[in-house]
């Protein structure tokens, strides 16, 4: 079982003691140190390289958010605070979770389970990247969008849509975002199952139920969901050559 080296960062000593006691029942959590403010927290993170920090937000001298911005490498972060107005901002900085004081056992347990799941998927993703492995229709992808997480099979994903610096993943009624360019993600997809129809979309070919000629030599694909996606003129030539349309 993997142990997560953990640092508790909170300006209140009693809060640190209480959290340490609550974490005692989790064999996977190894508390290696504590810090009473942001400056001390930064120093100990750089020295000890923890896997996880429990971080108070409202601390004198430097808030938890300000501390995070000063780190070159950020471990998993679970914010702990008495104030709920910081929740949205916590997830904007990609925090693992956000716990309100006093911490409830069930919420802490959920946070630890989320930590283990995401760490497993990150490790898998890293291995895939290192091996230059093409993602097949049966592979799953891990998506964290704010406080929500998803783990769909690629066979469930009908569209990948470019949205600025993000990709919007269309499956079922869900549209979560991942921070990645469509070009880089396209290189990971098996071309037998996925086709780049234009600058904005990659289509799962299993969802295509109809192909029709469109303006200026292009094509238009109809998906089983009723959605219609245009194929650019250049990509229409490739599509016709590939599938004999």
- The strand line-up of the biggest sheet is 2-1-3-4-5
Oligomeric nature of the chains:
single chain
CATH topology of the largest domain: Rossmann fold
Query: Would you identify the CATH H-level superfamily of the largest domain?
Result: Response regulator
As residue ranges, the low-confidence spans are: 124-131
The CATH class name of the largest domain reads Alpha Beta
Helix content range: 25-40%
Q: What can you tell me about this protein's structure?
A:
- This protein has 245 residues and is of the alpha/beta class.
- The protein has 2 domains: 4-125, Response regulator (Rossmann fold), CATH 3.40.50.2300; 143-243, OB fold (Dihydrolipoamide Acetyltransferase, E2P), CATH 2.40.50.
- Helices cover 31% and strands 28% of the residues.
- The protein has 7 helices and 15 strands.
- It has helices spanning 13-23, 38-48, 64-69, 87-92, 105-131, 182-186, 233-243, and strands at 4-9, 29-35, 52-56, 76-81, 97-100, 143-145, 148-150, 159-163, 166-170, 177-179, 194-196, 201-204, 208-213, 219-223, 228-231.
- The strands form 4 sheets. A 5-stranded parallel β-sheet has the order 2-1-3-4-5, with helices on both faces. Strands 10-9-8-12-11 form a 5-stranded antiparallel β-sheet, with no helix packed on it.
- Strand 9 (166-170) and strand 10 form a beta hairpin.
- The protein is elongated.
């Amino acid at each position: 079982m993997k142990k997560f080296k953990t640092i508790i960062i909170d300006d209140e000593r009693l809060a640190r003691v209480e959290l340490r006691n609550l974490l005692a029942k989790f064999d996977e959590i190894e508390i290696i140190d504590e810090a009473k403010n942001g400056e001390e927290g930064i120093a100990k993170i750089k020295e000890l390289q923890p896997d996880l920090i429990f971080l108070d937000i409202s601390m004198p001298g430097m808030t938890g958010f300000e501390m995070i911005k000063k780190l070159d490498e950020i471990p998993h972060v679970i914010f702990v605070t008495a104030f709920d107005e910081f929740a949205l901002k916590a997830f904007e900085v990609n925090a693992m979770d956000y716990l309100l004081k006093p911490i409830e056992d069930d919420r802490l347990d959920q946070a630890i389970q989320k930590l283990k799941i995401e760490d497993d998927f990150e490790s898998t993703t890293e291995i895939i990247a290192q091996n230059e492995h093409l993602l097949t229709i049966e592979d799953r992808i891990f998506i964290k969008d704010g406080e929500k997480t998803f783990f769909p099979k690629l066979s469930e994903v009908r569209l990948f849509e470019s949205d600025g610096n993000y990709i919007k993943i269309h499956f079922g009624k869900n549209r979560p975002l991942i921070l990645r360019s469509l070009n880089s993600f396209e290189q990971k997809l098996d071309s037998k199952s996925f086709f780049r129809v234009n600058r904005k979309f990659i289509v799962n070919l299993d969802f295509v139920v109809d192909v029709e000629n469109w303006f200026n030599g292009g094509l238009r694909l109809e998906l089983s969901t009723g959605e219609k996606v245009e194929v650019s003129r250049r990509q229409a030539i490739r599509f016709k050559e590939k599938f004999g349309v």
